[in-house]
């Protein structure tokens, strides 16, 4: 077993470990738990979020033991790096990995549970959401800041940004599901635009985002829109093709 706790929570290491050890029989399920399972635990005056990752297949069991960092460890380390760079994410607390003679068997990531008003998904699904455009423009500024700091969030999809109102027409953004991320010295234009391609299929949202991004990046807004929309369409086409393939596979299995 490998158990790492943030120095900020070192005094509570035993209690956090107890929550992990009793994960299956205690806590409150958060989400559907179809792949990874998340449970919430009340602790003093705060709620902590424990994510149990799906047991890896045979190849990954070995890979996560000897060649690659586990998803739990990456989540913990990337969250720590994001906070050091001034990027919002729930406070990382700990991670735990269990092994047998073959490799990794189970792993857990522990963080503070953050309650927010919405995720980016609501902006996509509810066009009339209050202050929709204001939030979208501030979110675009947040993404520009990510890119300026060389952060390529590979799971930059609608459900992975939490949004919290922090003042009059002012919002804060927090990244979650962090185990896939790259850090660069610089990010070129195509890399930046492609990184935003999974967020929304709506052309009107891309128009607002490209207009806002162009205020900070040295490209005309028409070029920013053209490139952002190109990568968005490319992603949507690949996604639709993948979904059709899944349906065919389900049909054959049936």
What do these coordinates show?
This protein has helices at 13-21, 58-66, 71-84, 120-125, 132-148, 189-195, 203-213, 221-253; strands spanning 2-5, 28-30, 37-43, 46-52, 92-99, 104-112, 118-119, 151-153, 161-167, 170-175, 181-183. The protein has two domains: 2-112, Phosphorylase Kinase, domain 1; 118-241, Transferase(Phosphotransferase), domain 1 (Orthogonal Bundle). Helix 5 (132-148) packs across helix 7 (203-213). A hairpin with a 2-residue loop joins strand 9 (161-167) and strand 10 (170-175). It is globular. The chain has a six-stranded antiparallel β-sheet with strand order 1-5-6-4-3-2, with helices on both faces. The chain has a three-stranded antiparallel β-sheet with strand order 7-9-10. Strands 8-11 form a two-stranded antiparallel sheet. It contains eight helices and eleven strands. The model has no long low-confidence stretch (mean pLDDT 93). It has 254 residues and is α+β, with helices and mostly antiparallel strands.
């Amino acid at each position: 077993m490998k158990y790492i706790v943030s120095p900020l929570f070192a005094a509570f290491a035993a209690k956090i470990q107890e929550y992990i050890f009793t994960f299956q029989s205690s806590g409150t399920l958060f989400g559907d738990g179809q792949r990874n399972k998340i449970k919430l635990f009340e602790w003093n005056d705060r709620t902590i979020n424990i994510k149990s990752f799906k047991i890896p297949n045979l190849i990954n069991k070995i890979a996560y033991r000897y060649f690659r960092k586990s998803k739990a460890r990456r989540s913990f380390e990337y969250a720590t790096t994001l906070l050091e760079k001034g990027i919002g994410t729930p406070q990382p607390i700990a991670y735990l990995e269990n092994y047998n003679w073959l490799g990794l068997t189970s792993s857990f990531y522990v963080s503070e549970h953050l309650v927010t008003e919405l995720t980016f998904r609501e902006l996509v699904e509810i066009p009339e959401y209050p202050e929709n455009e204001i939030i979208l423009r501030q979110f675009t500024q947040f993404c520009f800041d990510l890119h300026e700091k060389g952060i390529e969030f590979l799971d930059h999809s609608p459900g992975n940004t939490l949004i919290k109102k922090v003042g009059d027409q002012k919002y804060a953004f927090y990244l979650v599901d962090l185990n896939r991320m790259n850090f660069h010295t610089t990010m070129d234009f195509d890399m930046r635009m492609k990184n935003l391609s999974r967020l929304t299929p709506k052309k009107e949202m891309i128009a607002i985002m490209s207009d806002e991004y162009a205020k900070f990046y040295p490209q005309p807004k028409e070029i920013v829109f053209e490139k952002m929309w190109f990568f968005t369409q490319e992603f949507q086409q690949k996604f639709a093709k993948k979904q059709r393939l899944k349906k065919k596979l389900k049909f054959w299995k049936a």
